[in-house]
Structures are given as structure tokens and as C-alpha cells.
Design goal:
Blueprint: E1 7-12, E2 17-24, E3 27-35, H1 47-69, E4 78-84, H2 88-105, E5 109-113, H3 114-120, E6 136-141, E7 146-153, E8 156-162, H4 168-178, H5 186-193, H6 216-232, H7 236-267, E9 271-275, H8 282-295, E10 298-300, H9 304-307, H10 312-323
Parallel strand pairs: 1-4, 4-5, 6-9, 9-10
Antiparallel strand pairs: 1-2, 2-3, 6-7, 7-8
Helix pairs in contact: 1-2, 3-10, 4-6, 4-7, 5-7, 7-8
Bound molecules: 5'-O-[(R)-(carboxyoxy)(hydroxy)phosphoryl]adenosine and zinc ion.
């Protein structure tokens, strides 16, 4: 296959989004996603329901990705898929589908680490921000992950900090749930935070050594705070919702920025790339902008469609691996706790 004519199909099914994307020479031709609304009424992702919805969605989503890209499956050079980390039942659907399709078409199969993909999404052409130069620090923040990664090369990455309990998106979602917000609560918490006073209430930041994070204590502190205040005034949450949201967001953003500052100081790296759904948060975006002025950082945030769970990020890793001849064997298995 001539190097200029490589089409890769990326498939992502690690959590509750069934996604497929076609990439041609680093440029995205299609980026389709079927999000599973069914979890909203449960206040969180239900693994069993997620696997079933993936089974329903995967063929239509792949079909749509090929159609939008304007190619037929016989033109594909390879199939890239998310091997892990994620929910096992969800991963199995994408993995089995990718293996069968690659086998049927007699083309290479490429396994992709979901966390590496969040980082390498920055190398999609037209990703919406400049490409970060090596070495850089990547902060991946979503409902499933919170990591600081030192990135020395496309495939030379070292996790230098991560959460020891909840992910930062869970901190938003779980504290939002305590306040009666719908799932996922992050976007509404953000909207309300912009209308409130971030210093109205003070929540203690967790004391965790080094570059690791912890968010479960914050959730408990908010629970006790709400219980205490509603004993005095049953309408406390309703009457002060914006200020409470602003104060929670201020605390969470502070935790993230403190660790980033430390990571930048320890490594001497000032290029900072952000990925994951929480990178949409206005507080974190503002704090990063301030970091550019205060600490001389250069920050990189791709378009939202490439920061939440998506298949374009799987396809770009597939493309980079294809160029280096990194293919998987057909007996490869999904791995819920995959680590790089
Ligand atoms: O990357 P993502 O779409 O899926 C995974 O969790 O992997 O991230 C979803 C998470 C949810 O926890 C959601 O509440 C959070 O991102 N989120 C936000 C915002 N937009 C999405 N959190 C805070 N502020 C936002 N604007
Ligand atoms: Zn993710």
C-alpha cells in the first residue's frame, strides 16, 4: 500500500459511547458517535446496559463512518480498536467486531490504549489547536480518568500522577448528584458556577503526596456540608445553588492546577496538553490561561469532539502505529485494566 493512501478505521467502545472514525493521512474524514442516553435515568453508566447498546449500535455507527468518509470497506488499510482500559463488556464488543472485520477483509488489526489515544488526539490534523512539541505534559481528565503523563515521544509515555480513587469527572458528577443535578452533572455545575461566588464556601483540598490526586474525600465533605446546612435551612441548596457549584468547581480546579504546577516544576516542562471531557470546563480553561501568564506555560486543548471519548483518537493512533508497522495478532484480548 503506498504511504499516501492509508485509510484506517478506528473503533471505540470502552465506556458508554459507540464510536467509529475514518482517518486518511492524519486527517479525519468522519467521526461518528452514538451516545447512550439510557444511563441518564440511572445517574451513572450501567455496564450491562452499555454492552447491549454497543451491540445494537456498532454496525450502524461503522456503516455511517464509512459512508461519511465516502469510502467502501474494501479501501481500508487497517482496523484500529480500543483494547482498554474500560468496561470489559463494552470493550469486548468493539474488540470482537474489529477482529472479525480485519479478518474478513484480510487487513492488519491494531490495538490501541484508550489513554494514549486521549493524548495522541492532539496530533490529528485540524485538531483545533497547535500540536504540542515533545516533551510535554498531558493532563487527561474525564469521568473515567485523571492522569498527568509525561510524553517524550508518540509511544514513550510515563504516568507521573493519577487519581487514587475517583476521577475528576466523577467528583463533578457525584457532588452534582448530591445537589440534585441530573447526570452527568459536570456541564450544569459549570454553567451554574459561572453565575456564583467561588469563595462563598470553603472545601478543604485533600492532602495527597506527590503528583497523585484524590477526590473521594471532597465528595464526602460536600455530603456532610449539605446535610449540616439543610438541617438549619431546608431550602439551603435551592437558595444557594450557584454559589455552591462555584465553590465546588473552584476547589476541584485548584486541586488540578496545584498538581500541574508541581509536575511542571519537577520536570521543567511547560508545554501542557489537556484531554478528556472535563477539559470543556470553563474554570479549568480560565486557570490554564492564567497559567500561561503566571508560569509561562503553553497550553493545548483540542476541539471538544476530540477530547471526549471518540474514535478519531483511536484512528490517529492506528495511523501512527501503521506507519511503524505495529500490528496486533488475531488472538489479542480486551483488557479492562490496561496500563502503558
Ligand atoms: O471524556 P468523557 O466524555 O467520557 C469519559 O468519562 O470518558 O467525559 C465525561 C465527563 C463527565 O464526568 C462530565 O460530567 C464531565 O466530563 N464534563 C464536565 C464538563 N463537560 C463534561 N465536567 C465539568 N465541566 C464541564 N463543562
Ligand atoms: Zn476516555
Amino acid at each position: 500500500m503506498p504511504a499516501e493512501n492509508i485509510f484506517i478505521l478506528g473503533i471505540e467502545s470502552s465506556c458508554d459511547d459507540t464510536a467509529a472514525s475514518v482517518i486518511h493521512q492524519g486527517r479525519i474524514l468522519s467521526n461518528e458517535v452514538a451516545s447512550q442516553k439510557i444511563h441518564e435515568s440511572y445517574g451513572g453508566v450501567v455496564p450491562e446496559l452499555a454492552s447491549r447498546a454497543h451491540q445494537q449500535n456498532i454496525v450502524p455507527v461503522v456503516h455511517q463512518a464509512l459512508k461519511k468518509a465516502g469510502i467502501s470497506k474494501s479501501q481500508l488499510s487497517a482496523i484500529a480498536f480500543t483494547r482498554g482500559p474500560g468496561l470489559m463488556g463494552s470493550l469486548l464488543v468493539g474488540t470482537s467486531f474489529a477482529k472479525s472485520l480485519a479478518y474478513g477483509l484480510d487487513i492488519p488489526l491494531i490495538d490501541v490504549d484508550h489513554m494514549q489515544a486521549h493524548i495522541l488526539a492532539h496530533f490529528i490534523e485540524d485538531a483545533g489547536s497547535k500540536k504540542p512539541p515533545f516533551p510535554f505534559l498531558a493532563l487527561t481528565i474525564s469521568g473515567g480518568h485523571t492522569q498527568i503523563v509525561r510524553v517524550d515521544d508518540n509511544f514513550k509515555m510515563t504516568v507521573i500522577g493519577e487519581t487514587i480513587d475517583d476521577a475528576v469527572g466523577e467528583a463533578f458528577d457525584k457532588s452534582g448528584k448530591l445537589l440534585g443535578l441530573g447526570y452527568p452533572a459536570g456541564p450544569e455545575m459549570d454553567k451554574r458556577a459561572q453565575l456564583g461566588n467561588p469563595k462563598a464556601y470553603k472545601f478543604t483540598k485533600p492532602k495527597v503526596d506527590g503528583l497523585n490526586f484524590s477526590f473521594s474525600g471532597l465528595k464526602t465533605a460536600i455530603l456532610y456540608f449539605v446535610q449540616r446546612e439543610t438541617k438549619v435551612d431546608p431550602d439551603f441548596v435551592k437558595n444557594n445553588l450557584n454559589d455552591i457549584c462555584a465553590s465546588i468547581q473552584y476547589t476541584i480546579v485548584g486541586i488540578l492546577i496545584d498538581k500541574l504546577k508541581l509536575a511542571s516544576k519537577q520536570t521543567g516542562i511547560k508545554h501542557i496538553a489537556i484531554g478528556g471531557g472535563v477539559s470543556a470546563n470553563s474554570g479549568i480553561r480560565e486557570a490554564l490561561k492564567q497559567g500561561e501568564v503566571k508560569f509561562g506555560w503553553t497550553t493545548y486543548i483540542p476541539k471538544f469532539e476530540f477530547t471526549t471519548d471518540n474514535a478519531a483518537m483511536i484512528a490517529i493512533v492506528g495511523y501512527l502505529k501503521y506507519l511503524e508497522g505495529h500490528f496486533s495478532k488475531q488472538d489479542i484480548t480486551a483488557s479492562a485494566r490496561l496500563k502503558f
